[in-house]
Specification:
single chain; about 550 residues; seven-stranded parallel β-sheet; binds ligand ME8
Length: about 550
Amino acid sequence: MPPLSATLFVPMNKRFYITTAIDYVNGQPHLGHAYEKIVADVIARSRRSLGQETFFLTGLDEHGQKVQQAAQAEGKSPQAYCDELAADWKAFAKKLELTNDDFVRTTDPRHKEFVQAILAKLHTAGHFYKASYTGFYSTKEETFLTEKDRRPDGTFDPSYGEVVELLEDNYYFKLKAHQQWLIDYLEKNPSFVQPDHRRNEVLGFLKNNELEDLCLSRPAARLNWGIPLPFDPNFVTYVWFDALVNYISIPAAHGDPILDLGSGVSVPGNGAQRAQPQTPDAKSQTRLWPADIHVVGKDIVKFHAVFWPIMLKAMGLPLPKQILVHGWWQKDGAKISKSTGNIVDPVAVIDEWGLDAFRFYVLRELDIGPDGNWTDAGFKSRYQAELANGLGNLVNRSLSMLKRYRNGVVPAKHDELAAAAAKAADETRALLKQNQLQATLQSIWGLVTRANQYVDQTKPFNLAKDPARAQRLDEVLYNLTETCRVLAVLLWSFLPGTAVKIYAQLGLTGAPDKLDAATWGGLPAGHKIGEPAPLFPRKEER
Ligand code: ME8
């Protein structure tokens, strides 16, 4: 049998696999980290809600010079330093109610062992070479600088800190050889990097620059906080051959057969493709790779869209289906920076306003792609208009009226808002499949607005005063109550806590976590709802 093209081979029972960037462990999580993780969480939840088995991975990038130095400065071992911070980051993931299925730390033995095994295979297959290099090195940025990095006056940007001249032996990965292959791949697979303008940037970069081979090591004498190269203990792995590999080391730890180093990943020599093994008990296995989506910020596109595909090609593995690139947040039009104090503390915002208000603002304000600008005034205004006066008011007055006028008992089914609800549900399904999160929220709020107008137009509070109009009041109350139920289902991926509260207030058990439940008419006549309570309390101006 001729070898299958590895890039085309995807097993039938594979789970939808989504990842985030793994965050550097130095420091505390900020708005940008929170945003990326929430975007990935909404996509993961929405895929589950659409009925797809899903695996969501996030975690921490713990090796490197900065961590080593920060630990030293605090008089701790790097591992103890990472362990303490990792506890905070894991607590942060919980605070955001992320539904990640695993949390990777690059200091996990399961990750380190996999990195070493893959490095050994790549080395044996001839993808690496050792060379001496003299160059300017920024300790602060852990990177060699070239003449191109000099400013017109010949100096390096102060952001690089102290720049020293180094002569160093290191190991290099033969990246250059695959440049044309990658250009062709990007040309043929327009959805590989999204949004389009990011793909065009990557293609422009590849067409106008000759790739340099990738340095994958640092001498252990200079940096020992890293994974030792299995074939030369005088060196540790440098950042990307450690960090990027998390996307496959964790699936391997979950038993993904495509990543079984014993029989699966048989690294070919330069350029070759290989066939994937098929096993008879395939159904029971956790098949994750290739990832469906890597969610990453705009600053690390090159690593994900250039280095990573070439690394995978060398490993003989299929490529991820998509690198989904988000923009960066600023605050009040300026860079987020701890040193200038221009920060948004996600935990403080969540403690004051609630998690769903935070999730709503970042997802509604910023589409995946462009840069965003956080303003406290913008946050408060969306809270007041869209959450408190929009969704909150609709649910609260609808359920309170049902309680007051019908003792909380759902009247007979009526379909006046059915078309509007079906439109929002259809759009939600279609847009979520395209990861159009902001557009989905706009569509859902179309239904919120329509239902609030319906209250204003039908005036149930007036109908209630006239016993002859009891039938009409029943109709209106059914439409409103059922719309609230549909909204809970549509909102689940975005505002899970709110969706569950709406369900509970409707007297329904469980979570509204399957989009199929958005079909109109789910509330049966005679069902008794629970207690209404404000979802988004109005805040006093301060
Ligand atoms: O880059 N707005 O880690 P990191 C939006 N460890 N996103 C932002 C942001 C902002 N202001 N600031 C940072 C790393 N991010 C590596 C990744 S992946 C194998 C290794 C995003 O902690 C950033 O773009 O510096 C990245 O996607 C993520 O936060 C982690 O950044």
